[in-house]
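Subject: for your reference before the review

Hello V.,

The reviewers asked for a structural picture of the protein, and I figured it would be easier to keep everything in one thread rather than splitting it across files. Below is the amino acid sequence we used in the manuscript, unchanged from the supplementary table.
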Amino acid sequence: MTKHISLLGATGSIGIQTLDILREHPQEFELVAFSAGRNIEKTSEIIREFMPSLVSVQDEKDAILLKKEFPSIELAYGSKGLVDVATHPGSSVLVNAVLGSVGLESTLAAIKQQKTIALANKETLVTAGHLVMAAAAKYKAPILPVDSEHSALFQSMNGEKRNQISRLILTASGGSFRDRSRKDLEQVTIQDALNHPNWSMGAKITIDSATMMNKGLEVIEAQVLFDMAYDDIEVVLHRESIIHSMVEFHDTSVMAQLGTPDMRVPIQYALSYPDRLPRSHAKRLNLVEIGKLHFEEMNFERFHALQLAYDAGRAGGSMTTVLNAANEAAVALFLQEKIRFLKIEEIIERAMDKHVVINNPDLETILHIDMETRKAVQNMIK
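And here is what came back from the structure prediction:
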């Protein structure tokens, strides 16, 4: 039976790889709606290939241009367009692959329609995890993780009793600067930061990986998804990115999911779950060829952003919203060459220090805090 897919963020790294999966399995999946940002040339290519019934872009002027080229397709734009794609009546699965907290409202709207959520947008759970999980439980909408680490945890838990899990172990490649000291980081460039040793990802995620904030966001996401205490979520440095994460049970057994560093694997698993589909052109894991796997203790002084994420998670309430908003704003400033690399975590820490935690914030409060935090970050550099 064909699954009908809505895709948020089709022209980004995860979106493009999601389309690869749909392309490889045309009998299993059909793209009925998608959103894109401002890459209109790529958006046109996707429309011509998949011919969905609804497309949303960021700006109204681009929607008007696309409507002239594709008069038979419904066009939308802006935040309302994201919701329209997420709640398209013809889709049963929403793949949320947009960057940042912009994916929150559309995800909540899709949950209310009981769609299966394939979630690659970790910021949604970091910003408002308590709202998302409560809505998912209320409307019985499955949330399937797409991040390789959370997919690995999810797969390792399959068939096991959750009350017998003692620890989650997330692996981290260390990012672009894993072998550099903090002093070395004072002069690094954008090009340096975007040179990830293992994964091919978008600019924002690659910078987050370099600061280790990406792993921090994943720690918070793991806590939200699997309801584990932060003291029971560990991060270890694993250079090869072959073991994607592990679950330890209270009999000391450890279950791990291994594979080559290829995001198409967890994307496809989320789309095909509970089944597994073949990958005809994928590189297979050859442990003999790899030879050795390495693990190191995480240095929280070296990777201070990871410590900030744990601190925000333990503070709870609205603090994780501040963490995420400040990080998004600071990374954008770095990519615009307005601040240096180490300034990113300094800005995040300053934003957190100024914030008074609000417990169990509602959606309106979360959106307000998100907006005010971004404004505060802009004011910090003026």
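For the response letter, the relevant points are probably these. The radius of gyration is 20 Å. The mean pLDDT is 94.

Happy to draft the paragraph if you're swamped.

O.
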